[in-house]
Each structure stands twice: as C-alpha cells, then as structure tokens.
Amino acid sequence: MNHHHRYPPSALAGLAALTLVSAGCSTAADTSPAPQPSASAAVPVRTGGAIVIGAEQEPDCADWIATCAGSIWGTYIMQTPTIPKVFDVRRQGDNWVPVASELMASEPAIKDQDRPEITYKLRPEAVWSDGEPITSHDLKYTALQVRDGKDIFDKTGYDRIASVETPDDKTAVVTLKSRYGGWRTLFSSGYGVLPSHLLQGKDRQAIMKDGYDFSGGPWKIKQWIRGTSVTLVPNDRYWGERPKLGQVTFQFTPDTAAAFQAFKSGQLDAIYPTPQLDAVEQIKSGLPGANTQVDAQTGNLEAIWMNNGTFPFDSQPVREAIAYSVDRKAIIERLYGSLGVKQPAQSFLSPLLSRYAASAFSKYTRDLAKVQQIMSGAGWAKDTDGVWSKDGRPARFTIVSLAGNKRRELTEQVLQAQLKEAGFQMDIKNTTPANIFGKLAPGGDFQMGLWTLVDTFPDPSLSNSFSSTSIPTEANGRSGINFMRAKVDGLDKLLEQVDTQLDETARKEASAKADELIAAAVPSIPLGAVPNVLLWNQRVGGPIGINPVEGPWWNLAEWGLTQ
Amino acid sequence: MKDVSQGRIAVRRFVRHRMAMAGLLTLVALMVCCFGANWIAAYPRNAQDLLLGPTSPSATHWLGTDDLGRDYLSEILYAGRLSLAIGLCVAVLSTAIGTLLGAVAGFARGWTDEVIMRLTDLLLIVPGIAVLALALQGLGSSPFTIILVLTGLGWTMVARVVRSQVLSLREKEFVDAARVLGASNPRIIVRHLLPNLVGVVVVNMSLTVAAAVILESTLSFLGFGIQPPQSSWGNMLSQAAGLIGTSKAYLLYAPGVAILLTVLAVNFVGDGLRDAFDVQGRP
Amino acid sequence: MLTFVTRRLLYSVPVVVVASFILFVAVRATFDPLAKLRQGHDPSALQYQITRLGLDRSVFEQYVRWLKEFAGGDWGVSTRTGGAVLPMIGSALGTTLQLILWGVLFAALLALGIGVYSAARQYSAGDHLFTGLSYLGIALPPFWCGLILIQALAVWPKQQFGLAEPPLYFVGLHSPGLSGINADYFRHLALPVLTLTVGLVASWSRFSRASLLETLSSDYVRTARAKGVPGRRVLLRHALRNSLAPFVTVVALDSAVLFGGLVVTEQIYAIPGMGRLFLDSMLAGDVFVLLPWMVIVALATILLNLLSDAGYAALDPRVALR
Fold first, then answer.
1. Per the CB < 8 Å rule, is A330 touching B50?
2. What count of Cα atoms within 13 Å lies in the side-chain half-sphere of residue A489?
3. C-alpha distances in angstroms, B133 versus A32, A155, B211?
4. How many CB pairs under 8 A join A and C?
5. What ipTM did this prediction achieve?
6. Scanning B25, B53, C85, C252, which has its CA 20 to 30 A from the CA of A155?
7. pTM recorded for the entire structure
8. How many CA atoms lie within 13 A of C68 on its CB side?
C-alpha cells in the first residue's frame, strides 16, 4: 500500500483528497464520474481551448517512487493524468472502491494461498505516448525498482513481492511472500506503472524528477517551470477517451488569499483551496459566477493525537477524561457547519474507508460529570487553580500543530477553553511541518498534537499508525508512524488480520473489532473529516467532481470550455 | 546647568511641533487603551461564543466579532499590548545595547573597536530574514524570543551611528579637559559622552519602535510570529488576510489600521525629536 | 579604484568564511537534514543517505567538505526536490533580480522626482502631501499593502466596470505560455513593483528632499543664485548633481537587503524568486538549499556595499578611494 496512509508532509496546508456522501449516488463504471449535487454535469462543452487552474502547492519532484516525491499535489496534477495504473478509484454506491482501469483487459485475480499469485492481464491496445505497447515488463520493472531500489519513498506492499513472471507481453504474474489484504494498491495508488523501455538501465530519477515527456494516460506533461506552472497537453496516442481541452496549465499560487483574488478576477479558472474558514467566507460572499462543490467523504481525518508514552497521557483514565472533556460536535459545526458538515468523526478510519469502520467513538461526548468521576477514581484531585493534579503534578500539557494554519489555530483555542473548564491546562505551541513530522513526532517529543491523517487509497491501513511495531525507534530508524506510541492490547493481531486477510468480509470484521478496541483504550481522539472544496468558473464545464483519491482533476479529460 | 537648559530648549521645540504632539497624544492614548485593556475593554480576553460566531459591527460589538465569536475591539486592545510591548522592548533594548557597544567601540578603539565593528559587519551581511527564521525556528516563537531576535538584529545600526558620533566627540575639548582633570574612562563615557548622544539615540529609538511593529506583523504573515492563543496585531492581520473582498473584510482592516496609526504616531514623534535635538541624518 | 576593489574583495573573504561557518552550524543545529526521509517507510533509505552525505562525521569535517564543494561549484542536491541546488538558486536569483531592477529603478526615479519637487517648493501643499504619503508608505505592513493593492487595482476595477480581464495581473510574471519582455510581462510586474516601491520610495524621497535642501542652503548654491543663475537651473545642474552621490549610496545599500528580503512580495504574487525559495526550503527543512542561499545573499550584500562605495566615489570627485 504505497504511501496510501500518511501524514501530509508538506505545507502550510492540511490538504486533502475528499468527497461528499450524497444520498442516491450510484454508478461507477471505470470512466463514468460520480454525479455530484452541485456539479455542472449537464453543461455542454466544446473541444479545444485552454484553462488555467490554481495549485496551492508545488510538488517537489515527479519521480513518484523516490523519497523526494510524496506531495499529494504531484499526484493530482501530474501523476494521475500521465501514469497508467492497475486500479482506478471510482464510486460504487456510497463507497469509493478500487476498479480495474482501462489499462486492464480483465479484473486482476488473486489466488488465495500461502504464497498468493496475482495475475494481471493488460489490454492489447494500451500504449505509451511513443507508440510502444505497455507490457508486463513494465510491471516487472516497476515492482523491482520499488522493492530493490534505494531512496524509495515507501516500499509497503512491494516488500512482500517474491517474484514477477512475464509469461507473455500482456500478462504478468506476481507472487507474494505472504497474504496481503492490500494487494490492490500494487501498481495503483501512488506508483502506477512505469515504462521499462525508457527507464531500464538508466537513471530513473534524472529522467523523471523534473517532469518527463512520456505518458500512458490521457495527458502529457508539456512543461514544468519550477515555481511557476505545470502545463499539460493531450497525449495523442492515448487509447481511451481523448481530452476535450487543448491545454491545461496549473499555476502555483502559494498564498491562499491571493489565489482567491486571482480566481475572482478570472486569472484562474478553478481552484481547490485548503478548506480554511476564509474559503468558507469567500464562498459565502458569493464569488461571481462560481460553481462550488463541497465534499465530506474524504480521506482526511483530523485528530487530536496524544503521546501515550508521556505524562499525563500515559494514563488511560486521563485520555478517557480528555475524550469526555472535548465537545467535538461544537468544534466541527463551528469550522464546517456552514459547508454542511456537522458530524464529528467516530473512527480513525476516514470517511473514505467508512465501510471498514465502526462508529466506536460516538460514546465520547462532552460530559464534565463523567470527567470528574473518572479523574477522581484514578486518584486525581483539583488543585487551587482548578487543574487536576496527582502526586503534585498538575495535568498540564502542550499541544503542537502546524504554524500558520488558521483552522487549526482556532481549533486549538476552542480546545483550550473546553479543556480548561474540565480541569486541564493546555498550552499551545505550533511549529513548521518539517519540525513536527521530521523531529517532534518521530522522536516522541510532544504531548498532544493536532494534525491530519491522510488515506490515499480505499484500503484500511491503520496498522501503520496504531500497531505497536510501528512505533518509531532507533531500531527501525525512527521510520514508523505510530507517533502516539499507542500500545493497545490485542490490537496488533487484529490489524495484522486486516493487513493479511484476502477475504473482504473477514477484513471488515477484524477492522470493526480493531475500531472498538481503539475506542476503548482511547490512544487518541478522532476529531472530524476535513471537507474539501472545489471552485470553478463559468468558462469551464463537464462532469466536474472531486475524487477523494485521485483528486479533483481525475477526469480532466472530460472537462471543456462551455459553448 | 548647560544640559538642563539644552533639555528645556528641546522640550519647547518639541511641544511646538504640532504633528509630533499629535503623534505623542495618539501613542499615549493607544498605550493607555491597550495596556489598560483589562479595565477598558468591554469583554474579557478570549471570551469565546461559538454559537454566535462571526458578526458584523454593531452596537454591542463595535468592530464585530471574529470566527470564535470574540469581541473584535477587545481582542484588538489585548493584542495591542503585545505589539506595543514588542515594539518598545526592542527599541529600548537594541538602543541600550547599540549605544553601549557603539560608545565603547568609539571610545576604546583598538581591538575592542575592531571586534565590535567586525561583529556589526557580520550581522550586516548575514541575511536578516535568515537569522530571524532560524532563530525563531530553533528557539520557538514566543514574544520573548521575538524581542530577543529583533534586538539582536537592531542594535548594529545604533551602534554604528553612536560610534561615529563618539569618534568625533572624543576629539572635542571638553573630553580632553575631563581627562586632564583625571576622570576615568567609564566616567567620561557616562558623564560627558552619553548626554551629547541623547538626540541621536532618541531619534533612532523611535524609528526602531516603528520598524519592530511592522517586522512583527511580517513575521506573523510568514508563520514565524506570535502564535495563538497569544495575539498581536500582526497575528490578527495575517489571520484575516484571506477575508479580503468578503463582507468580513473589516476584520482585516481593523488591526491594519491599528498598526498604521501606531507607526505613523511613532514616526511623527521621531520627527519632532529630530527637530528638537536638531539631529542630522537620513529619516 | 582597482586596488580599492581588490582589497575590499580580499578583505571580505574571511568575513564570508566565518559567516558561512556560523550559518552552517546554526542551520545544522536547527534542522535535521534527514527529516523528510523519516516520514517515509523505508529505513534502508536513511542509512544510505547518512553515509552518502557524510552525516556521521563531525560538524567541522562536514563544514570543510561543504566549503570545498561549494567553492568548486558543487552545491549539492536539495532534499526537497532532489534537484541540483546551483541552478535552483540561479533561477531564483534571476527572477528576484528582475523585481529588484525594476522596483529600484522605478522607486529611485520617483523618489528623486518627489525630492526635487518638495525641495523646490518646501512647505507647499504638494510637499506636505508627499511627506504625508511617504509616512503612510513606511507605516503599511507589506503584505497588507500587497493585498489591498490587488483588491484596489485589479479585482475591484474588473468587477466594478465589468471588464473581461483585470487591468493588472498578480499571479507570476507571465501569463501561461508567454515569456520575454512584453505588455503581458509589465501587466504582471506592475503590482509587485508597486508594492515594493511603496516601501522604498517613502524613505528615499525624504532622504533626497533632505539632502537637496542641504545643498540648496550651501554657499556655492547661494553664490550661483546671487550671480543670477535661474532657480530651476541651480536646482537641477548644481544641487541635484551634488546630492546624487549620497542618494546612490543609500539606494545601493537598501537594495542589498532586497535580495533575501522580498519573501512577502514573492509569496503574495506567486513569483519564484529568492524569497520564496527561502520560505519553501525553510518549511521543508531543506538544509542543502538554505546554506548556499544564505551565502549567496551575503555575497550580494557585500557586492552592493562595494558598489555603493564605488558609486559614491564616481559621482563625487572629492572622494578618492584608497
């Protein structure tokens, strides 16, 4: 499951890939878009023309499997349009699920055995932009690059590959060392399939990192001017549906306030802003001629993370009491109520994965009497300042989040006020993402944190952040992401089942049980899904709608200028 | 006796400077309102009303309320405490350090002068933004560290000016006379040189206040400034930046106007002081 | 002159070395060069990079190695982008230079004009107006000023007059697909340059006014006046020429600060210059870009200081450089 579960590494942003649960949404053949309530699906469009889209974050590099990659904006604006993959993520009923892509002649099949075998059959007409066919050798090349390469962003899943056979040009058979429930992420989320005939034996990073001219998708990267823009043009050799637009430019606009102004003034035809309160305000102020889509079925889960390895959160009663002190519903309503999002999250699985989740956290609502009862029961007493204290140590701690993120700063201030009433003294100390995710969190040098967990594929992977083997230690090079140092009895086994079961029903059962265990031990507290917002002006039409995994431009080929 | 009459002349000149007096009054009023916010502000600090949320200016909330339903005027007054305190502290500290080091360098000359001046050279070429960002990243952005870092950057200018003044003053007759009478070096600096530097120093101080208030707001915009729940004008300004062009733009204009007023007032005062002490040099 | 320049340049070598060492230590103490790697899930990548970058050696050894490579033109690779640092800084510097060039040129001419006007008509209504405006320019927080300029000069006119396009652009330096110096370029350049100018012109115009007034009251100008040289001619031929030297000095010194100081302008107007490179690298903890960035800005400062002294000498024949 190549980086399909991670913390947004970069930015003043808490960016996201999200989508709206809207009743009555069905369909999802591999190309058809999910109908969206506010999408202007019916607007007829013409062929040709160019648009400019604002991108608030520039990807660091386009060598998608290397450590320099990992920007979700890179996935949105360059990888999804150009790199073919085995599974697309499409809506089916209320859920987003992996669906075999146009690259595949048939749905890949897995043999359930100790060393499972996956058979991939590629579509005969699938070709790269230079006319060379996309073959099983490309799959093999990609798999081995990831598995055996140095400087790889994430090897999850690929490290289970025992061998890749290529019986013929269009058939690949991958043998795994052990059962792997997330096998659909292979050659899909994050990495896709790379062209071996162009890369084999060459310096892949040198060819790809600043943008590459090959493509196996509907678009080609025409130009990437660092710091300024990425320009896409149609890939004439694409075997599927051709893009309607003649050119799409993604213009980097790091300042959100300026980006909104640029959208208002028509310099940008569409923007996908971080859902800050300013964005809400701008939308409410009536952007002239703007279409809006707000999505809450997202892969982004904002949570209050507690460091279980440090005082006072090394005590379960304290963690429980905190969960009863916080009015999560009030916070979510204040932040996103005007966007129509009013319910807090009740699981650490984001809405994207709701079919694996139990709403186990719903018992935690603000209840100060219960806080009193739990804390007194655990031997705490309020001191003269009204703060809980035990053995002379007050329940005072510091929360850390990303500096300059208004939404989080407001959340922290509300939390601070709510916790104070409950008898906890919380200080706020924010810093840069590099400092948090590079230093504080891996080193366990924090008490409480507020950040987002991002699911980038509809496949559960809580083991990455909840299994005790994922606690960053010297031994594993501080590379796990169980930053909260959670050790919940019996949880490792359940999460292991979720990871290794191939049977969906069994996975769901194990996952729901894991959810219950997590809620009982409260290692941390889920706050809410971060909704996402897409804005586009009247020049643009087509079946526009956000895909929580592939981003808002997943079907850019069907966008066009209105007639 | 000579000092006293000189001082009196300066005060008289200053009082006659209309803009300077207006600036001084504004500044005093701002300081009284902000530092007295506990008594003056209509609402307590950080009094949230989540259900109310943001509202437009009204009779109950003169400047409206912010996203958490806090009275914006009160919040501005509380935030002003920090903004003004940072401005004043940086000015006082960097002037004190700069004057001391500049006077010592100019007076002692030799290797002391060399060391101090090389240090100012170093700080002149090392990019200020880099020093600010690194220091605040390393030490954390508390008001204390912000004051510390801004002072660290600000003293060199004063030191250079003071040093050159001292270099010319020390050749004057009254210093020679004092030395002949057996006065020690520190005594000469404190009794004879410093009083003659008052004009330069005071003018520089007022400019530093203005610069520090502006810099603090820029730091906030870049994310290295005052962090919530503490608030400053710069921090409120950058928080409201995204509201431009919306019906809530007043949340953006109010703290900006507060900064504008302060800096204008301080500059007018500085101008008045310059005229009063008859200081030459660039604005 | 040549010996002066050579001596100054030689003299600045130890200063740069000392400064770079201090910065090296400070940057390394503040950031973990491997921070980004630690977010990945591949422990073997860590060890590989530690060995490759020599992070297991002492700080001093690392510095010496860095300095050698830096002096030899090998500036290393950015951990953020995986790209070579030298071209990154080169392109950012080129972009920022455009801003500085146009901004300084515009602001200096404007400041001189205002200075001449105000000095010629001291205490007139116009003089007071310019003085007031210059105070305003100093008192505006730069990002606030930028946002307000965007609203007032681009968004508002477009909405108010129903224009198809805003009169001025504010995203980047060119529209997509265009390059070079043309009308589109200047429509992009106008707002950032104006934002820059607001901050600069205030103090420069007051400086030029003051120095003009000073020369106007000097003996030789009074003599010229007494001899019946017309006022305009006195002002332009004598006073202006004499006040130019200190003015150029101040302009050059202030411009030096702009090399690393346009962070806000570049961020708001989405211009990929030195300021934004710094901010991006800072947020990503990209030590391999931060260090050369700081050294380059320091070098630019030294050069402009030198230029300012040389310019002073060139414009004022009374000053000889030794």
1. yes
2. 2
3. 48, 35, 17
4. 182
5. 0.85
6. C85
7. 0.86
8. 6
